[in-house]
Design a protein that fits this description.
Elements (H helix, E strand, L loop, with lengths): L2 H6 L1 H23 L1 H8 L3 H21 L1 H7 L2 H24 L4 H28 L5 H30 L4 H8 L1 H12 L14 H4 L3 H31 L4 H26 L5 H21 L3 H14 L3 H12 L5 H28 L7 H7 L3 H13 L1 H20 L1
Helix pairs in contact: 2-7, 2-8, 2-10, 4-7, 4-17, 5-17, 6-7, 6-9, 6-10, 7-8, 7-17, 8-13, 8-16, 12-13, 12-15, 12-16, 12-17, 12-19, 12-20, 13-15, 14-15, 14-16, 14-19, 14-20, 16-17, 17-19
Length: about 425
């Protein structure tokens, strides 16, 4: 990227980085408060599952619904709307116990509203960064997605610390403090320069995209990349505690937080040093390493080595999601916001399915009679065997990603 572009879009880049941090806030803040909410308002785990499902489903719907209006009316109205939705959603969520005896319906409404922010940001930020003039799109995209990882790490640590210091009863004030960040982001996007969109006459329409085999391969890559990333992120704490016999606090901090740190570090390092390197090569290396990390964590009985496998998986999968966006931008340079909406929806779908599949396998691994001999001779409890089997099968996610990456490269060579 030339120096003129760096200077003229510096405030835009900062606003996008802040917004992706907020994307992590939207997904990770309320789940950390689930236990305080359970104690204070007698909520059930089923109700928490409903809130989590509402979060992901709303993001997928927002990805798709806002794609056409974004192409029609431009980035500005919607990128300014996103932080306002965060503030409004958190306001409803926090005030629900004040206005209703049963706050759960208010929690659902608030979750749906602030979760729409996540979908909007997934759609808009990649399109904005990809539209900034210059050749360093892969670098900017990688650093952009690293801010999600830094956001996840920061939100988990600071919110956990705040609940410990100020008490669970003050959870509304914790949400109010975090709501200051989207207020700042609102003013950032209100004044920053936004790149021009592809003119409608030149824009590649959706019908031509869906006729290209590469579109479906990239969509599958980001879906399985999302499975590879989020499955390990979501199951690390439980796996280390129940199958690795580590204390919960160690599973949360050394497991989840270090995974997020490695995820951010991988994206940041590529952003700093990867400018002259093909992102596809790093994605194939990362997918291969992720297969090894899953298998190492699932099969090693030494807790420290299993923990290492979980943590290093964050580094291995770090480029699978942002790299998919870069591949799509290079393959379809004249596509509009609809392309990024489909990519975001594909990634979210994978992120939703992957952890669920591992959970199902973990619950049913000891049922088949042909596995009874292996399970009983392993020296593991049924729960431990199930969790290890689930994580072992999870290695299929990065393995499939690797095979899809080679299919995409073969298609690119044929096109050339």
């Amino acid at each position: 990227m030339n120096q003129e572009s760096i200077v003229s879009y510096r405030s835009t880049i900062r606003a996008c980085y802040t917004a992706n941090f907020i994307g992590a806030l939207v997904i990770n803040l309320t789940p950390i408060l689930f236990i305080p909410l359970k104690v204070l308002y007698h909520l059930t785990y089923t109700q928490f599952g409903i809130l989590l499902a509402a979060n992901f489903i709303t993001q997928i719907v927002a990805d798709v619904v806002f794609s056409w209006p974004t192409d029609r009316y431009g980035y500005r109205p919607f990128v300014v709307l996103a932080p306002l939705l965060t503030i409004f959603g958190y306001l409803i969520f926090a005030l629900s116990p004040v206005f209703w005896d049963n706050p759960f319906p208010g929690f659902i409404v608030g979750t749906v509203i602030f979760s729409a922010t996540g979908g909007l940001l997934e759609l808009l930020l990649s399109a904005i960064v990809n539209g900034i003039p210059g050749e360093q799109k892969a670098t900017l995209m990688s650093v952009l997605h690293s801010f999600y990882a830094w956001g996840q790490l920061t939100v988990v640590l600071l919110t956990t610390l705040a609940v410990y210091l100020f008490g669970a009863a003050n959870w509304q004030w914790i949400i109010a403090a975090w709501a200051l960040l989207p207020i700042i982001n609102f003013f950032q996007f209100l004044t920053c320069r936004l790149p021009a969109q592809v003119p409608e006459k030149e824009r590649q329409n959706a019908s031509s995209l869906v006729k290209d085999k590469a579109f479906y391969i990239i969509l599958a890559i980001i879906a399985f990349g999302g499975m590879s990333e989020v499955s390990m992120a979501m199951w690390t704490s439980v796996f280390l505690e129940r199958a690795g016999n580590l204390p919960k606090i160690l599973g949360d901090t050394a497991g989840m937080c270090l995974f997020a740190a490695m995820l951010g570090l991988g994206r940041l390092l590529y952003g700093i040093f990867g400018e002259k390197h093909d992102v596809w090569k790093f994605m194939t290396i990362g997918a291969s390493a992720a297969v090894g990390c899953y298998l190492l964590a699932a099969t090693c009985e030494i807790a420290a080595i299993a923990l290492t496998g979980c943590v290093l998986c964050g580094l291995a999968v770090s480029l699978l999601w942002p790299g998919s966006v870069v591949l799509a931008g290079k393959r379809f340079p004249l596509a509009g916001a609809w392309l990024y909406a489909m990519l975001a929806a594909g990634g979210d779908l994978g992120a939703s399915i992957g952890p669920y599949v591992i959970g199902v396998i973990a619950d049913h691994a000891t049922v088949p009679t042909w596995l009874h001999g292996i399970w009983q001779s392993s020296g593991l409890t049924a729960e431990q065997f199930g969790l290890r089997t689930g994580l072992f099968c999870g290695a299929l996610f990065p393995l499939t990603t690797l095979l899809l990456l080679f299919s995409f490269r073969k298609l690119q060579q044929k096109k050339s």
